[in-house]
Amino acid sequence: MLNNKVILFIIIFVIFLFGFICGGLLSNWDIIKCTFFEVKITELVQIILTLIIAIFITSFVTTRTSNKIRRRDMVLDLVSKLHNCIDKIYEIGCNFLEKPIDEDKSNILGRFRDAGNTLHIIEKIQNTKNIKELEGFNVSIIKELFFQFKKELTDSPFRKDIHVGTVISFNMLYTELSEKLYEYKIKTCL
Amino acid sequence: MTNINISKDFSITPGARYIKDGPYSGELFREQFLEKLFKDPNDNSKITVILDGTAGYGTSFLEEAFGGLARKFGKERCLKRLCFISNEDKLLIEEITRYIENAK
Description:
heterodimer, B: mainly alpha, three-stranded parallel beta sheet
């Protein structure tokens, strides 16, 4: 990943090269070569001013763009972390529904705790900071699905009372939750 | 004011819903710790439940302990008297409040 300073340098260099080539193409070197290296003080001031304005504009644009990218990456990281937790819970949950063992039980609860805390961070950021990238993320719907998903796996299955309906419902909730998270991630990336 | 620390006073591995489902169930916790504090209808003192320090809580445990309490003694009274502390799981308090509010 290139850092901001390198990007800024590349942009300035490209602008300079573009100007140099344009100047070369538009002027006749034979005519201007005798006076080319004679510099008037007003021209020098003009060049310096132009350069300062160019640097200011490029740095403004790159800072804005890189901040936006950084914010988007941060939001996507959090949502991906939540998605990974849900995937892992589903994987362990499927094994548990097939063959309930106590080790999986505590593993499931630990994963639910991680997912819940990540969801809490997303909600807190959304409520306190005005982050444009989180506008499309509907926390209340995700939270509702998350609680249903948890209930499906840690209510009757924890009592070793597993029905076909529980398994179907658990799968459906996972699909719905996953769909919502993918939908958001794709929307944010585009 | 009463403090109940689940990990210290009850278990670090809270179990399932009913006593018949296994050890440290929600029903057992409700009967042993919560119901006795709600028996006096004039007692409106606060009860603080510390949820940290355990391996986690299944829906079955939480619903039976707190939802069950709300079914027996009323949602308003439970919400008024119970306070929760959960630093390890930030969504837990909201989850419990839902079970109390939706108790039927």
